[in-house]
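Try it yourself: sequence plus NAP, in.
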Amino acid sequence: MHGTTVVITGASSGIGLHTAIGMAALGATTVLACRDRGKAEAAAADVRAAATGGEVHVVDLDLADLPSVRACADELLARFERIDVLINNAGGIWSPRRVTRQGLEMTFGVNHLGHFALTSLLAERLRASSPSRVVTVSSVAHWFAPGGMRFDDLQSEGRYIGFDAYARSKLANILFTRELARRLAGTGVTANAVHPGPVRSGFGMDGDLGGITGLGNHLMRPFEITPEAGARTSIHVATAPELSTTTGGYFARSRPARTAPWARDDGAATRLWDMSHRIAARAGLDLPDVVAAPH
Ligand SMILES: NC(=O)c1ccc[n+]([C@@H]2O[C@H](COP(=O)([O-])OP(=O)(O)OC[C@H]3O[C@@H](n4cnc5c(N)ncnc54)[C@H](OP(=O)(O)O)[C@@H]3O)[C@@H](O)[C@H]2O)c1
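Structure, out:
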């Protein structure tokens, strides 16, 4: 990976930090896109200790604030001539319901819309750097979103259950990946989603998660894998030579994995894309369209 630049969101802890460490160990220049500068600088020190030639940089990114997403993209475009890999890793689960700076439900806003916006803003640079890859960290939790996206209530205003919102946001990650792959077909930019496994990270542990879901999260911890092991699938999909043209896929344990039927709905993928574009515009962020190549 020497000579490549890899941007990783949410690299301040957990899977993202270990993804950054793994990519730096392979020689990539890593860019840690994080919301907490202090945590990010501490993480960057760990990444530098593992680096084998590439540089390590930190940029500010709060996915719960669309102007911050725009500022992050502008900074990345100004500072880095190439972006070879974008790893949309940051994410969380919240209960009770919270909202982003623009009033969007937090799980939808951070896990899906923030990454949708960041990827759209970086798409041209990814194209110019091709062959390049977008890896989005989803979850097996998308199986718990039967019925698919709730297009009549994407902000969960009618009813809110933290795990339910989370499952739908992870479904959104896969639908986004499918539509991105379709739009970028033939450009040399691939888009794939991953499930990292059940990982003993900071996930849901910082007081963001109450009630029965929070209790379940604590009880699962002894059975979970380390963040280092949880980073392996992201690193594999971002780097494996045999996946250089594989796109629109979903991976777990570094192998292709089966998605739920509602994650294979291409109509829903296009609809989510169009609605996300409009939601961002209504919130004040006009995004460039990522246009499908003519066939
Ligand atoms: N842990 C699991 O079992 C599991 C299973 C399946 C999928 N996943 C997925 O794996 C990804 C990484 O999670 P993790 O397990 O490593 O959890 P984690 O240790 O809690 O890390 C989450 C990362 O996301 C960042 N983040 C949260 N809100 C953000 C925001 N508004 N803007 C920018 N960054 C933000 C956090 O930043 P701070 O450090 O500032 O909080 C942190 O760096 C998530 O997408 C999650 O859905 C995890």
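One thing you can check immediately is this: Residues 5-282 form a domain with the Rossmann fold fold (CATH 3.40.50.720).
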